[in-house]
């Protein structure tokens, strides 16, 4: 296939390409991530926040209100909220913007390896210092801040939520199958078989979005080996073949064989999975308190409203983590771009972060801080208050979602293999072997 | 190639109907006809049913959608989905953006395609064969190759997140086919026409403006219509290069209906799909004759 | 490529095109400048957005780069990884071939069958053509939404409902979850979408077959079937080659529907090279490896077109 580009043109193109590429990389800018109180005048302008939160959700509503208040005293200021609720699309967008060096003043990120690289390059502001300087650090729940920290304990993201992930269950369906809620994770397979025998889908699972199933993988290792296991995994100090990883793989395989999840879980989306539970077809549903408005208010179908309750992550024999430690994320965090940080951004953040907990808690959501009380909506069931109260009882340890921890290539592979494992298309041994190979291949890159 | 568009009588695209509608037709033939009609009707139903289902679903209530039989007619018709669709998304803006991108890219394709074909076919030059091959290479090059490099280039020159960032690659990747179609057509413009114009003292620019361009109308319609289908619905370039809500085209706007954590309001999404399909559908139905003819003539030529 | 242009993609009746003479200008007078003025702008557009990225991808494929830290030169390691160490790549390659096969059967087979039937239909041909082309105007995002519901098992979607009605309850499955059905399930929408387009092209070619040829064959006692394969099909072979090339390259660059419908899953059961390349670039931020894969996709397309051309042309010559 003769591509007839003259040699000289080819050479020129190559040089141009090389120049374009090299000039793009390694541009950290001259910003200092520890300079949290830059000198200068506050000049009102528009600042942007690239975020991944529901468009009509509590965080955005609260921040819009706060930005309006702030703009009254600072004419010319506005906060441009650019949201991409779909998380995979968001991550793609944010990572490509980072590559293009086009991140706005504020952007959402989890404490991922990618974010760690950005922090290492000095592109994100040190939030530990910022919160201390603003006198707000002590207001935050310890678990909420810990969730945002990198492995080395550094904090570069501000939490805006606090969520508890529960196993919601339908007590009427459990009674029908004559079973109790599980005491240990090991009880799940038998529980599922009994529920199946009673003609009930045991667990509703949104398999399409991958992360819900990945949570299940994290549970066994968290109880057996603590939150360090996943950190060791990504650092190459642990393997899937270790006892904790093996136990997790075998447990998930068992769950699949016991028919725990609906048959087409891998193509079931979020809404359909929740629909299975709220319509009384499925007995158990693992989701966080962000769904309180749907699961603990009269928005819930009256037929199941009285039967719905929840339990927290069961333990295992010989667990190293306390019962009150489970997945308690403070949501995706907000990072502050060090390159665009100026007196205005600081002043706005000082105002907004101070004001936020009150405004946010008024929407009925759990604030990441301890200084406000969540208002319970009028149409709430008793469960709502119970869940809100539960938030004050959680331990400081939190089970980290693995999708925010592993490098993206390994994570993608893990999510794919997990589905196959639960569907019974591969055996635990195969799963472990594949995943350890993927870890090894991707760890150096 | 036997029937160049320029001279082809329009009847060729119309099937030659059997004129001999003989009153006495053997029953076997009639049975065959009936069977044929039924087969085609079935095929068409299978082909079109998903779209019909989509349309009906956009009027269902959410409860009816999750519990009712998928083949049943909606038990309740509601326009609520449409109001939710308009409330959630920014449909008009999406449609406007798709329109800008489609119009911009089509214009670029037509102008660049005609110019290149004119240079290659009418003016001619020593390496025209090589250049022609270079263009034809583009027909088989998959668009994915351009994603990463263009993303990097755009970020360098600040083109990321603009209408142009979508228009350029969409036009460039459609260009080879357009060059090809225009060249095949120009090949059949009689040489005498040009010679006559030359005798009147017209240079290449005037000849292009006064002869070649006006004669190209049919091919232009074909090129624009066929490409519009692809460009209007482009997902991959828009998804890669567009970041802000204000620039989202229809496919991206539709994606917005997948909410946080993957929650989807299906009936409203289907309503949104119906709304966004409408503009192209209208154009399609109005111009469908011209387009089918264009496609067919393009087809028998190339 | 030039020859391909003349006979393959050109699809003109071979022989007629040979009049392209070595002195190609159709104008008696023209200057070099005028050629440049007409040629340079389109060539620039094409060069910047199509040719330059190919060169850049080749270049980038020799590096390891995550977009934010410095690039490191790794030589051919990305290719070594692709061919030797990455099982997902091979799975995706196999899937891409499967996807291609299903799309071709649906698009070309379907197009030929329907076009042939249509030529025998006494009336309403225009209506059928219009309806048949309709899916082509729907965006792939909408198609993905639509088929997600059509394949759904719980709540039961149209496909599974239909199976239940005709008494095939046993065949009901979660089409997009089952590793054995998912590849077909993501290919069908793509095939469905464009079959109308190819049908039109083939139909137009079929009705251009001179009636006398068929009449003559009929008089010789050939059946409809024989007439079709001996007379009509050989006559439309050049168009058939064009259509095959179009359908093949479109199927090989297929991306939207698998990406939106299953994102390659479950496992890698519906991962295509294109979706894998996209994920590698924009999810894993491994731009070097992604470029290597995209270089492979280009080569794959060129090889496929070359093969089609060889196979179909040779038979024509014999």
Overview of the molecule:
- The complex is a heterotrimer of chains A (445), B (302) and C (318).
- The model of chain A is unreliable at 1-29 (pLDDT under 50).
- Chain A contains 18 helices and nine strands.
- Chain A has two domains: 37-162 and 330-375, Periplasmic binding protein-like II (D-Maltodextrin-Binding Protein, domain 2, 3-Layer(aba) Sandwich); 165-327 and 399-443, Periplasmic binding protein-like II (D-Maltodextrin-Binding Protein, domain 2, 3-Layer(aba) Sandwich).
- The radius of gyration of chain A is 24 Å and the shape is globular.
- With 445 residues, chain A is an alpha/beta fold.
- The two termini of chain A are 34 Å apart.
- In chain A, the strands form two sheets. In chain A, strands 2-1-3-9-4 form a five-stranded mixed β-sheet. In chain A, strands 6-7-5-8 form a four-stranded mixed β-sheet.
- Chain B folds into two domains: 26-88 and 257-286, no CATH class; 91-241, MetI-like (MetI-like fold, Orthogonal Bundle).
- Chain B contains 13 helices and no strands.
- With 318 residues, chain C is mainly alpha-helical.
- Residues 1-23 of chain C have low confidence and may be disordered.
- A two-stranded antiparallel sheet of chain C has the order 1-2.
- Chain A: Belongs to the bacterial solute-binding protein 1 family.
- Chain A: Residues 1-30 form the signal peptide.
- Chain A: This is Extracellular solute-binding protein.
H/E series of chain B: HHHHHHHHHHHHH
Major sheet attributes of chain B: none
Helix amount of chain A, in percent? 40-55%
Question: What is the CATH topology of the largest domain in chain A?
Answer: D-Maltodextrin-Binding Protein, domain 2
- The helix fraction of chain B, in percent, is over 70%
Summary?
Chain A is built from 18 helices and nine strands. Chain A has 445 residues and is α/β, with parallel strands linked by helices.
Task: Compile the SSE list and pairings.
The complex is a heterotrimer of chains A (445), B (302) and C (318).
Chain A (H helix, E strand, L loop, with lengths): L6 H18 L21 E6 L6 H16 L4 E6 L3 H13 L6 E4 L3 H8 L6 H7 L8 H7 L8 E2 L6 E6 H6 L11 H10 L3 E4 L6 H15 L2 H8 L7 H15 L12 H9 L3 E7 L3 H4 L6 H4 L2 E4 L21 E4 L6 H19 L20 H9 L17 H15 L5 H16 L2
Helix pairs in contact in A: 2-15, 9-11, 9-17, 11-18, 17-18
Chain B lengths: L26 H31 L4 H6 L12 H9 L2 H33 L4 H13 L6 H11 L5 H24 L4 H9 L4 H12 L1 H16 L3 H6 L8 H6 L10 H36 L1
Helix pairs in contact in B: 3-13, 4-7, 4-10, 5-7, 7-10, 10-13
Chain C lengths: L1 H8 L22 H29 L2 E2 L7 E2 L3 H9 L1 H34 L4 H9 L6 H11 L7 H8 L16 H26 L3 H9 L4 H29 L3 H6 L11 H10 L4 H31 L1
Antiparallel strand pairs in C: 1-2
Helix pairs in contact in C: 2-13, 4-8, 4-10, 5-8, 8-10, 9-10, 10-13, 12-13
Protein name (chain A): Extracellular solute-binding protein
Keywords (chain A): Signal, Transport
Family (chain A): Belongs to the bacterial solute-binding protein 1 family.
């Amino acid at each position: 296939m003769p591509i007839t580009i003259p040699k000289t043109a080819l050479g020129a193109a190559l040089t141009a390409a090389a120049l374009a590429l090299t000039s793009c990389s390694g541009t950290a800018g001259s910003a200092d991530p520890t300079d949290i109180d830059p000198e200068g005048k506050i000049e009102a302008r528009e600042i942007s926040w690239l975020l991944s939160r529901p468009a009509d959700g509590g965080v955005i509503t609260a921040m819009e209100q706060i930005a309006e208040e702030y703009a009254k005293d600072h004419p010319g200021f506005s906060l441009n909220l650019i949201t991409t609720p779909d998380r995979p699309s968001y991550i793609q967008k944010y990572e490509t913007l980072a590559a293009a060096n086009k991140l706005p003043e504020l952007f959402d990120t989890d404490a991922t390896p990618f974010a760690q690289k950005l922090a290492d390059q000095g592109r994100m502001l040190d939030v530990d210092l910022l919160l201390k300087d603003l006198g707000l650090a002590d207001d935050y729940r310890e678990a909420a801040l810990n969730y945002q920290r990198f492995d080395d304990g550094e904090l570069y993201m501000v939490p805006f939520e606090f969520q508890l992930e529960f196993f919601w269950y339908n007590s009427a369906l459990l009674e029908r199958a004559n079973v109790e809620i599980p005491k240990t994770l090991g009880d799940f397979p038998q529980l599922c078989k009994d529920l199946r025998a009673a003609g009930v889908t045991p667990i509703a699972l949104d398999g399409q979005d991958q992360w819900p199933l990945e949570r299940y993988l994290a549970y066994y290792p968290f109880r057996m080996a603590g939150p360090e296991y996943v950190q060791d995994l990504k650092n190459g100090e642990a393997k899937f073949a270790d006892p904790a990883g093996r136990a997790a793989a075998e447990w998930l395989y068992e769950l699949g064989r016991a028919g725990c999840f609906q048959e087409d879980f891998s193509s079931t989306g979020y809404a359909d999975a929740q629909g299975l539970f709220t319509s009384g077809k499925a007995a158990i549903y693992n989701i966080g308190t962000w769904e309180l408005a749907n699961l603990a208010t009269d928005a819930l179908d009256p037929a199941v409203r009285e039967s719905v309750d929840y339990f927290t992550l069961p333990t295992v024999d010989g667990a190293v983590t306390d019962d009150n430690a489970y997945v308690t994320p403070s949501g995706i965090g907000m990072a502050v771009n060090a390159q665009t940080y100026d007196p205005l951004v600081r002043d706005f953040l000082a105002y907004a972060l101070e004001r936020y907990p009150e405004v946010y808690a008024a929407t009925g959501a759990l604030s990441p801080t301890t200084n406000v009380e969540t208002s319970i909506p009028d149409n709430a069931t008793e469960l709502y208050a119970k869940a809100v109260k539960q938030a004050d009882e959680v331990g400081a340890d939190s089970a980290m979602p693995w999708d925010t921890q592993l490098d993206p290539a390994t994570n993608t592979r893990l999510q794919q293999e997990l589905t196959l494992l639960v569907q019974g298309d591969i055996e635990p041994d195969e799963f472990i072997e594949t995943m350890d190979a993927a870890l090894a291949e991707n760890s150096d890159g | 190639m036997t029937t160049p568009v320029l001279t082809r009588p329009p009847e060729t695209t119309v099937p030659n109907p059997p004129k001999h509608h003989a009153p006495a037709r053997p029953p076997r033939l009639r049975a065959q006809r009936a069977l044929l009609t039924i087969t085609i009707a079935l095929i068409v139903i299978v082909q079109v049913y998903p779209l019909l289902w989509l349309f009906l679903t956009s009027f269902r209530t959410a409860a009816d959608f999750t519990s009712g039989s998928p083949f049943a007619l909606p038990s309740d018709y509601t326009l609520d989905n449409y109001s939710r669709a308009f409330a959630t998304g920014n449909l008009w803006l999406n449609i406007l953006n798709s329109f800008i991108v489609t119009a911009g890219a089509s214009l670029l394709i037509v102008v660049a395609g005609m110019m290149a074909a004119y240079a290659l076919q009418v003016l001619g030059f020593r390496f025209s064969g090589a250049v022609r091959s270079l263009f034809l290479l583009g027909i088989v090059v998959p668009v994915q190759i351009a994603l990463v490099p263009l993303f990097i280039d755009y970020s360098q020159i600040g083109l990321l997140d603009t209408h142009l960032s979508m228009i350029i690659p969409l036009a460039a990747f459609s260009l080879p086919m357009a060059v090809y179609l225009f060249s095949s057509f120009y090949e059949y413009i009689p040489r005498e026409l040009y010679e006559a114009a030359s005798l009147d003292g017209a240079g290449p620019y005037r000849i292009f403006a006064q002869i070649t361009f006006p004669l190209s109308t049919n091919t232009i319609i074909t090129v624009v219509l066929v490409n519009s289908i692809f460009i209007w619905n482009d997902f991959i370039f828009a998804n890669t290069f567009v970041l802000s809500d204000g620039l989202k085209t229809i496919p991206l706007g539709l994606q917005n209906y997948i909410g946080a954590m993957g929650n989807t309001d299906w009936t409203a999404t289907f309503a949104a799909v119906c709304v966004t399909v409408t503009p192209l559908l209208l154009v399609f139905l109005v111009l469908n004759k011209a387009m089918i003819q264009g496609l067919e003539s393009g087809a028998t030529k190339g | 490529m030039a020859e391909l242009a003349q006979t393959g993609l050109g699809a003109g009746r071979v022989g007629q095109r040979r009049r392209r003479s070595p002195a190609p200008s159709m104008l008696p007078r023209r200057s070099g400048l005028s050629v440049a003025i007409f040629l340079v702008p389109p060539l620039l557009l094409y060069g910047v957005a199509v040719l330059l990225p190919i060169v850049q991808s080749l270049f980038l494929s020799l590096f390891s780069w995550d977009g934010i830290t410095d690039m490191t030169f790794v030589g051919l390691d990305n290719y070594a990884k692709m061919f030797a160490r990455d099982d997902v790549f091979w799975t995706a390659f196999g899937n891409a071939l499967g996807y291609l096969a299903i799309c071709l059967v649906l698009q070309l087979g379907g197009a030929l069958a329907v076009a042939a039937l249509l030529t025998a239909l006494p009336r309403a041909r225009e209506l059928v053509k219009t309806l048949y082309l309709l899916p082509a105007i729907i965006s792939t995002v909408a198609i993905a939404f639509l088929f997600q519901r059509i394949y759904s098992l719980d709540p039961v979607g149209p496909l599974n409902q239909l199976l239940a009605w005709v008494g095939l309850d046993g065949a009901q499955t979660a089409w997009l979850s089952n590793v054995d059905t998912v590849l077909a399930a993501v290919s069908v929408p793509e095939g469905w979408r464009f079959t109308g387009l190819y049908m039109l092209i083939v139909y137009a070619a079929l009705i251009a077959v001179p009636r006398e040829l068929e009449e003559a064959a009929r008089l010789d006692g050939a059946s409809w079937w024989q007439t079709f394969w001996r007379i009509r099909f050989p006559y439309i072979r050049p168009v058939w080659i064009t259509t095959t090339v179009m359908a093949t390259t479109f199927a090989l660059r297929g991306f939207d529907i698998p990406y939106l419908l299953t994102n390659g899953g479950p496992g890698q059961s519906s991962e295509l090279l294109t979706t894998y390349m996209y994920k590698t670039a924009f999810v894993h931020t491994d731009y070097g490896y992604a470029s290597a894969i995209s270089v492979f996709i280009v080569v794959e397309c060129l090889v496929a077109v070359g093969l089609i051309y060889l196979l179909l042309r040779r038979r024509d010559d014999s």
